[in-house]
Amino acid sequence: MSISSSDHAVMPENDEITEIVELADDAEITDELTDGADLAELTDEADDLADDADQTPEITFGDLGLPEGVVRKLAQNGVTTPFPIQAATIPDALAGKDILGRGRTGSGKTLSFGLPLLATLAGGETEKRKPRGVILTPTRELAMQVADALQPYGDVLGLRMKVVCGGTSMGNQIYALERGVDILVATPGRLRDIINRGACSLEQVQVAVLDEADQMADLGFLPEVTELLDQVPVGGQRLLFSATLENEIDSLVKRYLVNPVTHEVDPSAGAVTTMTHHVLVVKPKDKAPVTAAIAARKGRTIIFVRTQLGADRVAEQLRESGVKADALHGGMTQGARTRTLADFKDGYVNVLVATDVAARGIHVDGIDLVLNVDPAGDHKDYLHRSGRTARAGRSGVVVSLALPHQRRQIFRLMEDAGVDASRHIVGGAGAFDPEVAEITGARSLTEVQADSANNSAKQAEREVVDLTRQLERLQRRAVELREEADRLVAQAARERGEDPETAVAAVVEAAEAEVAAAAAEAERAAREEQRREERPARDERGNYERRDRGGFRRDNDRPSFRDRDDRGGRSFERRDNDRPSGGFRRDDRPSGGFRRDDRPSGGFRRDNDRPFNRDRRDDRPSGGFRRDDRPSGGFRRDDHRPSGSSFGGGRRDDKPRWKRNG
């Protein structure tokens, strides 16, 4: 059931209206009713009944049985009319029935299960470490979004909520559970870890909600999900929401839900009439420029890539092009992911470059374009990506870039997703193709830089206006203080019996001299700063370029010493032909040189003709310090050690008797 046909869930059907309208349409098209009076009568009757149906009041949240405090809070937040899935599921959920909801992301499922959960648990008591409600989500971002969406209404009913997910402090989560938490919004992995630590128990859970079950199956979380649901007491309420009902999800339904009530709204993102799909076939060299041009559009854009490194690379390239972009992927810390998502929501960042895992389930209002730089892994990933735009009935555009060899893959993916996408071949114009600009609102980087310069100029103009106002205010203050100072000086002069005008003139003259000296000092400082800025910068080696002093620069302007005429007949170039006879060439050395073969007998050759050498063990004289040939006066540790050595030498037996006995 699409959005356009889901109004029947809010407004009761009127078979009489439908029948008469069909008769009137058939009469106009086929001319089977030739009587103009009969045709006019039928048309008037259909119009009257349609007007009566239009005047029928729409269902409000108060009509669904929600607490008055929650209804008032919804009205304060501007939420008065429920979405089709909310109007269909909330009454059954309040009645305690198990719910099986099928709808794409952005159709309003969070309030569909959240508000009945809060209303059911209101007024009860919760023990420490034993929550009464649990909501399982596939990702951290989705868990935080669900908690942020339900926390205001939980505060109205006095219920405490806590997000339990990875990437955040487990100690804080355990501390909150020890104090008592009514509802846990958790990812399966972190909740299982906390339960294994003995810090939480699900034995008192009354309502268990499984949100985005198909995404959990895609991410491989179903073993943890089944392990957690097995710990929930039998007989409680189960609410399961999923965009698709495949084999794995169907097994969960059969295992944990008892006589569930099924509500289906917007089963596929591809069926949304307010969303258009386009495939741009680009050449490899044009992919980066086209991406930058589309990202430079006005409005919020989310770009999907395949890998974490790709997200960082594309975001860096966009920032270098002047686009306010940031990356979001699973390799970032939770704090960094939260800050990035907050900047994107608040408008400080216009483009979010994300991977599939990080972007699953995130909800940001105002995303009107999704750009797939890398193809999605399968049709389900494509639908999840597309679900970031055209949310809650708004319009959106989904654009996929396809290289020539990826066309078949992407077209097959579109068919599996049930999407009718228009195909465009980007020609030689590249990023500035008029068709691309019409579809996506792409802009040239020059236009982006012009906007950036224009914004900077406007900011500078605003600062000039502010500084001018401050200057005028300070000038008025200075005049007031000068007048007050002159009045006091004149009064002091009269008290001393002096001429007031002379005293005031002296003070004014001294003040003007001080102002002139301060102005001169400021001018001197400005000139010094200008000279400092004009000084040559240091090169890579830390040396200053001496341009004006005629010194020797480290570039090609250094004077050459290769020319004999410039050196007075002498040259420092080491050429073989110009060396004097006494040079140190190996072949031209004189007989007294140091060639290995021609060394004199007194040289230091390593052969047996080496002269006396004190370092060689075999050639040491008898007075050397060889261990075997040491003289009796040496420092050996044997019996030849002298008895009177000042270093404590000598044998122990040779010590004086009084020392040995002592």
Automatic annotation (TrEMBL):
<dbReference type="InterPro" id="IPR027417">
    <property type="entry name" value="P-loop_NTPase"/>
</dbReference>
<feature type="short sequence motif" description="Q motif">
    <location>
        <begin position="59"/>
        <end position="87"/>
    </location>
</feature>
<feature type="domain" description="DEAD-box RNA helicase Q">
    <location>
        <begin position="59"/>
        <end position="87"/>
    </location>
</feature>
<keyword id="KW-0378">Hydrolase</keyword>
<feature type="domain" description="Helicase C-terminal">
    <location>
        <begin position="289"/>
        <end position="440"/>
    </location>
</feature>
<dbReference type="GO" id="GO:0004386">
    <property type="term" value="F:helicase activity"/>
</dbReference>
<comment type="similarity">
    <text>Belongs to the DEAD box helicase family.</text>
</comment>
<dbReference type="InterPro" id="IPR044742">
    <property type="entry name" value="DEAD/DEAH_RhlB"/>
</dbReference>
<dbReference type="Pfam" id="PF00270">
    <property type="entry name" value="DEAD"/>
</dbReference>
<feature type="domain" description="Helicase ATP-binding">
    <location>
        <begin position="90"/>
        <end position="263"/>
    </location>
</feature>
<dbReference type="Pfam" id="PF23348">
    <property type="entry name" value="RDM3_C"/>
</dbReference>
<keyword id="KW-0347">Helicase</keyword>
<keyword id="KW-0547">Nucleotide-binding</keyword>
<dbReference type="Pfam" id="PF00271">
    <property type="entry name" value="Helicase_C"/>
</dbReference>
<dbReference type="InterPro" id="IPR050079">
    <property type="entry name" value="DEAD_box_RNA_helicase"/>
</dbReference>
<feature type="region of interest" description="Disordered">
    <location>
        <begin position="519"/>
        <end position="662"/>
    </location>
</feature>
<feature type="compositionally biased region" description="Basic and acidic residues">
    <location>
        <begin position="521"/>
        <end position="642"/>
    </location>
</feature>
<dbReference type="InterPro" id="IPR014001">
    <property type="entry name" value="Helicase_ATP-bd"/>
</dbReference>
<dbReference type="InterPro" id="IPR057584">
    <property type="entry name" value="RDM3_C"/>
</dbReference>
<protein>
    <submittedName>
        <fullName>DEAD/DEAH box helicase</fullName>
    </submittedName>
</protein>
<dbReference type="InterPro" id="IPR001650">
    <property type="entry name" value="Helicase_C-like"/>
</dbReference>
<keyword id="KW-0067">ATP-binding</keyword>
<dbReference type="InterPro" id="IPR014014">
    <property type="entry name" value="RNA_helicase_DEAD_Q_motif"/>
</dbReference>
<dbReference type="InterPro" id="IPR011545">
    <property type="entry name" value="DEAD/DEAH_box_helicase_dom"/>
</dbReference>
